[in-house]
Amino acid sequence: MAVKTKSPVAVRLPSKVHIDELQCKGCELCVYYCPQETLAMAKYVSDRGFVPAIVVQDNCTGCQECARVCPDVCITIWRE
Ligand code: SF4
Ligand code: SF4
Fold this sequence. Notes:
By secondary structure, this protein is of the alpha+beta class. It has one domain: 2-Layer Sandwich (Alpha-Beta Plaits). The chain is about 10% helix and about 20% strand. The protein has a two-stranded antiparallel ribbon. The protein is elongated and about 50 Å long. It starts with 14 loop residues before the first strand and ends with a strand. The mean pLDDT is about 90. The site of one iron/sulfur cluster has 13 residues, from helix 2.
């Protein structure tokens, strides 16, 4: 009889996230979906007239949820 093994757990390494504030239209999706609360909405308006999402904590795990949900492809994530 085959021995069942657990599925491997995804390793999430410290990562950096960057939001292109001029592209961001402030839909808040990335803030809502970030499990780390790394992102928040700014308290200012961008040059395009939108309140952009910004990085407020240095605890990004690189899960990419924010980048997946962003409709305007404003988010870049990279490993350190
Ligand atoms: S990659 Fe994941 S942890 Fe990092 S900011 Fe995006 S949603 Fe949050
Ligand atoms: S999902 Fe994209 S457009 Fe929406 S607030 Fe976040 S960065 Fe801005």
